[in-house]
């Protein structure tokens, strides 16, 4: 049994330790928000967070995530009925076309903004170039990332006195 | 409540009166070109008797809905299971069709077309809701299944709105008329004294109002008016059409809840990974699955049946590994060894297909006289003045759709009844193919349409859907077929490799004595081994419908053999034709020393309606439209070029090593001009800025027109700059994003979209943005660097 924390819940999985995390999420945990696009670390459709960092789940054996915390698009929102600022900005800019790449795009964007709420164009390009969108939503992704960054800054500023953390990716 | 894809309808929401659209459409399997997927069927609207329906529903006295709704498309994995279990029961209620109105005011509108990112599940209901007078937040969008009763569902050819706009408006207008009649009878006033606004019918004099929900039951008892007898709105009164409404389905996508074909999960389901023949037409000679069967999770290894040539849109045979999870299926397949039989003479020819050699042959062919498809005047006897003549040959390699979601379908076959969930652009064709495959009645086949993670024409073919059906029947369990990316790239239906030749002589600031030729493997060849040249509808895709005012013109084609599966790809032959024409006009402009847009305007000539059928191309097929409102209009062409130039300022001077390129193309009844600005330094290309201006007539959902133009520019970048499919010994050489690259965010320049404000009949949107992009890029490269690129992709010459 492999144990990990998945979207805040402890889970134990009885799977081959070599199985890539992507298939464990989709087939075993039935969390189908994370997508298959290439199976080779080339497209970013399968991006999830491992202890807050974005990783490609299609090339990450499940054994690597043992004992760690994995977050998928289904767990990105702060609370279950609240959208993450990245999701809100994505919605406001009507970013998705077919939408298939967008879970990966948003997971990558959230990981970027967790470290840097005011990324430059170049920083966005560097961080996001592993995520392909064949439909061509890049201009909106750039805009939405900047907007989400401002939203996160606002939330963080509104809450400094409580000592609580603001929005986390 | 906002429009969103609904959970399965419950009985209490079902209908009492039906509005049915009927047709007899199965896509023509032998038609080449875009029109194969754009059947235009006028709806035959009729009513199903209230009593029979109420009885069927067990709803006697409680049915409050105007028109019959349908199954909703399931949106969570759990509800797919529910649908699977309840599908036979639901069929009893599945009577009809586009609009239903419930007592609580909820309006359900069916989207019958396939959603692949173009936004059609917003636009179709948006048109109906506008004519109905509905309030958008009270509209719920329901995704249809594949069923002939909806009229054409073949979602291709940018046809959803351009072919059905009036049908959709009539649907809404009929429902509105019935509500108005009901209200008039309640108030005992004339129907002409009432109007509909914002989900209410209002008596204008007294300002009395009744909501849709209050009127639904009464309206349902009225006869359905004839579609010709209902008044359509004056376009200036549109409340939703032409406005950006909240888009259907976006929330589910951003939460990761949207269901694509690969997301289907059924109890007891197996996942299939299929090893397919590397050469088109090859058969399985033998295979060894000993090691495969040792992989944990592998349940069965099944050879698929042999499929003779022509390939059609059917599976290509192979050996399937079925396992309890996707990874086991793929791992098992890695252990499989298969020996292929290519002894059939045709297959053997396919096994010798070599793109490098083949392209040379195409170039050779178009540099010789071919079969004339359009002639005006006489180009034969003309003696060309060499100093004023431009002659050029342009080539494009095979291209692959590369939709982010690889093909996938899930099938359940039991007791001669089949249910599939598939990401298809053509669900009725799937239904027909499945019925043929199983030898059962199409009525026994249910085709559930999932969202598609991109399609671009690829998913109009249902080979993957039939694979799932074949395997589900063989193994007696639900089967989901999932293509790896390598499968997708190596077994595509490619956009044809092509050569276009152009020759013309400059005469002052325009040109004449125009000869153009084209050669490429025609799509018809996948259905008919004897098809060797483009069909007339394919020739109407920006080739023999050339819009210039010329006295002497010859358009010619050449016959070629086909050795891979070719198919419809976003804009089809417009891609190579617009690349050639757009490049050539630029070359003429350079020679004549006039700006490129000026050369376009000069060649287009005087204001006129262009009718190629009367100018030497009798077989002209205007994207299936005979109507005057879709006539080719040179004024609209010139106007969109002028709008582009004004908005982009593409004629302004640039810095050293920088340059602008522009081009124009008409396709799918829309007019598009594009401009690109680039920098070329030390053979390194940077694309700085791109503009697209479109006249698509009425833009129903402007934001989705914009997003399609943005997407077309990005796809144009990928296609022009860096991607190509090559074949050696009949085998596709590429396999994934590393060798068939797609533009990434760091390669994305600033993009600008200019939509012409128009009340003309709506044209296509999904495809027309794409064709003019390619020449706008290569022309810009020329103006920045002096390098003329006639053979794509650009990265053979410049680093990109
Ligand atoms: S599916 Fe993992 S990077 Fe493409
Ligand atoms: S939205 Fe379709 S691939 Fe990105």
In whole angstroms, the N-to-C terminal distance of chain A is 28 Å
What does the overall shape of chain A look like?
globular
Number of strands of chain A: 5
Structural category of chain B: alpha+beta
Mean pLDDT of chain A: 93
Low-confidence stretches of chain B: 1-96
Instruction: Please give the count of helices of chain B.
Output: 19
Distance from first to last alpha carbon of chain B: 47 Å
Give the fraction of residues assigned to helices of chain B.
25-40%
Bound molecules: FE2/S2 (inorganic) cluster
Give the percentage of residues in beta strands of chain B. Answer: 15-25%
* Annotation field: number of helices of chain A: 5
Biggest interface and its residues per chain? A-B, 59 and 63 residues
Return Rg of chain A in Å: 16 Å
| Largest sheet report of chain B | 8 strands, mixed
Mean pLDDT of chain B: 88
How much is the radius of gyration of chain B in Å? 27 Å
Could you say which structural class the secondary elements and strand pairing of chain A correspond to?
alpha+beta
The share of residues in helices of chain A is: 25-40%
Q: Can you describe this structure?
A:
The complex is a heterodimer of chains A (169) and B (800). Chain A is of the alpha+beta class. Helix content of chain A is 35%, strand content 12%. Chain A contains five helices and five strands, in the order ββαβββαααα. Chain A has a five-stranded mixed beta sheet, sandwiched between helices. In chain A, a hairpin with a 2-residue loop joins strand 3 and strand 4 (53-56). In chain A, helix 3 (102-115) crosses helix 5. Chain B is 27% helix and 20% strand. In chain B, helix 11 (427-438) packs parallel to helix 12 (463-475), helix 15 (574-592) packs parallel to helix 19 and helix 18 (702-721) packs across helix 19 (773-785). The relative contact order of chain B is 0.11. The model of chain B is unreliable at 1-96 (pLDDT under 50). Classes of the chains: A alpha+beta (169), B alpha+beta (800). Chains A and B meet through helix 1, helix 2, helix 3, helix 4 and helix 5 of A and helix 6, helix 8 and helix 18 of B. The structure holds FE2/S2 (inorganic) cluster (2 copies). The site of one FE2/S2 (inorganic) cluster has 12 residues of chain A, from loops.
């Amino acid at each position: 049994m492999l144990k990990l924390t998945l979207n805040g819940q402890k889970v134990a999985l009885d799977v081959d330790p070599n199985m890539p995390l992507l298939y464990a999420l989709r087939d075993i945990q039935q969390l189908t928000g994370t997508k298959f696009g290439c199976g080779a670390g080339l497209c970013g459709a399968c991006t999830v967070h491992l202890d807050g960092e974005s990783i490609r789940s299609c090339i990450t054996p499940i054994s690597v995530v043992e004992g760690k915390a994995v977050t998928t698009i289904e767990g990105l929102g702060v609370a279950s009925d609240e959208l993450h600022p990245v999701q809100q900005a994505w919605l406001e800019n009507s970013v998705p076309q077919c939408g298939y790449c967008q879970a990966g795009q948003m997971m990558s964007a959230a990981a970027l903004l967790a470290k840097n709420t005011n990324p430059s164009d170049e920083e966005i390009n560097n961080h996001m170039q592993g995520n392909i969108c064949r439909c061509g939503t890049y201009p909106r992704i750039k805009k939405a990332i900047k907007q989400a960054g401002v939203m996160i800054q606002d939330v963080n500023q509104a809450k400094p006195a409580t000592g609580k953390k603001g929005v986390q990716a | 409540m906002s429009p969103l894809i609904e959970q399965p309808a419950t009985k209490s929401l079902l209908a009492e009166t039906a509005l049915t659209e009927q047709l007899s459409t199965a896509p023509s399997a032998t038609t080449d070109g875009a029109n194969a997927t754009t059947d235009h069927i006028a709806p035959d609207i009729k009513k199903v008797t209230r009593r029979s329906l109420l009885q069927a529903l067990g709803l006697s006295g409680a049915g409050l809905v105007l028109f019959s709704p349908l199954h909703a498309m399931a949106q969570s994995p759990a509800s797919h299971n529910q649908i699977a279990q309840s599908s036979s029961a639901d069929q009893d209620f599945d009577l009809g069709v586009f609009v239903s109105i419930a007592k609580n005011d909820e309006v359900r509108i069916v989207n019958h077309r396939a959603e692949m990112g173009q936004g059609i599940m917003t636009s179709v209901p948006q048109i109906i809701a506008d004519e109905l007078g509905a309030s958008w937040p009270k509209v719920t969008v329901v995704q249809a299944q594949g069923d002939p009763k909806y009229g054409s569902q073949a979602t291709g050819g940018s046809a959803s709105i351009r072919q059905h706009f009036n049908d959709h408006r009539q649907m809404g207008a009929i429902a509105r008329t019935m509500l108005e009649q009901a209200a008039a009878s309640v108030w005992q006033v004339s129907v002409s004294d009432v109007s509909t606004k914002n989900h209410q019918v209002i008596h204008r004099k007294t300002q009395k109002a009744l909501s849709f929900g209050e009127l639904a039951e009464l309206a349902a008892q009225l006869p359905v008016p004839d579609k010709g007898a209902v008044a359509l709105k004056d376009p200036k009164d549109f409340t939703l059409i032409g406005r950006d409404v909240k888009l259907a389905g976006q929330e589910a996508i951003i939460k990761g809840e949207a269901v694509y074909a690969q997301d289907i999960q059924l109890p007891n389901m197996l996942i299939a990974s299929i090893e397919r023949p590397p050469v088109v037409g090859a058969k399985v000679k033998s295979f060894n699955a000993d090691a495969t069967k040792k992989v944990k999770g592998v349940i069965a290894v099944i050879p698929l049946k042999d499929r003779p040539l022509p390939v059609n849109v059917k599976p290509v045979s192979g050996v399937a590994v079925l396992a309890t999870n996707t990874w086991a299926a793929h791992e098992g397949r890695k252990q499989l060894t298969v020996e292929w039989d290519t002894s059939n003479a045709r297959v053997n020819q396919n096994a010798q297909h070599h793109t490098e050699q083949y392209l040379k042959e195409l170039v050779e062919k178009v540099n010789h006289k071919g079969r004339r498809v359009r002639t005006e005047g006489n180009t034969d006897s003309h003696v060309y003045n060499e100093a004023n003549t431009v002659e050029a040959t342009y080539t494009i390699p095979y291209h692959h759709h590369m939709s982010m979601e690889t093909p996938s379908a899930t099938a359940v076959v039991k007791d001669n009844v089949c249910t599939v969930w598939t990401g298809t652009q053509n669900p009725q064709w799937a239904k027909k193919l499945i019925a043929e495959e199983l030898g059962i009645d199409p009525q026994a086949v249910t085709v559930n349409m999932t969202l598609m993670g991109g399609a671009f024409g690829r998913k109009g073919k249902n080979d993957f859907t039939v694979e799932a059906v074949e395997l589900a029947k063989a193994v007696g369990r639900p089967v989901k077929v999932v293509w790896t990316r390598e499968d997708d790239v190596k077994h595509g239906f490619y956009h044809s490799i092509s050569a276009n030749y152009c020759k013309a002589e400059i005469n002052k600031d325009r040109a004449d004595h125009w000869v153009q030729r084209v050669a490429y493997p025609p799509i018809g060849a996948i259905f008919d081994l004897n098809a060797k040249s483009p069909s007339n509808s394919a020739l109407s895709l920006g080739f023999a419908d050339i819009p210039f005012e010329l006295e002497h013109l010859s358009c010619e084609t050449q016959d070629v053999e086909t050795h891979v599966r070719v198919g419809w790809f976003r804009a089809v032959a417009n891609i190579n034709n617009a690349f050639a024409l757009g490049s050539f006009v630029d070359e003429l402009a350079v020679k004549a020393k006039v700006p490129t847009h000026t050369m376009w305007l000069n060649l287009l000539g005087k204001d006129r309606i262009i009718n190629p059928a009367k100018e030497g191309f009798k077989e002209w097929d205007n994207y299936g439209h005979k109507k005057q409102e879709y006539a080719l209009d040179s004024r609209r062409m010139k106007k969109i070029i002028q709008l582009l130039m004004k908005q982009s300022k593409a004629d302004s001077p640039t810095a050293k090593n920088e340059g602008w390129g522009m081009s124009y193309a008409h396709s799918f009844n829309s007019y598009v001009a594009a401009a690109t600005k680039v920098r070329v330094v030390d053979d390194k290309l940077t694309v700085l800025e791109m503009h697209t201006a479109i006249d698509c007539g009425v833009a129903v959902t402007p934001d989705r027109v914009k997003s399609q133009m943005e997407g077309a520019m990005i796809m144009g970048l990928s296609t022009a700059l860096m991607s190509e499919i090559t074949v050696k010994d009949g085998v596709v050489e590429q396999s994934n994003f590393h060798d068939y690259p797609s533009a990434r965010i760091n390669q994305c320049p600033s993009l600008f979209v200019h939509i012409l404000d128009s009340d003309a009949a709506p044209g296509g949107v999904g495809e027309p943005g794409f064709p003019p992009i390619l020449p706008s890029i290569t022309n810009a490269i020329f103006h920045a660097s002096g390098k003329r690129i006639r053979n794509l992709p650009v990265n053979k010459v410049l680093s990109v």
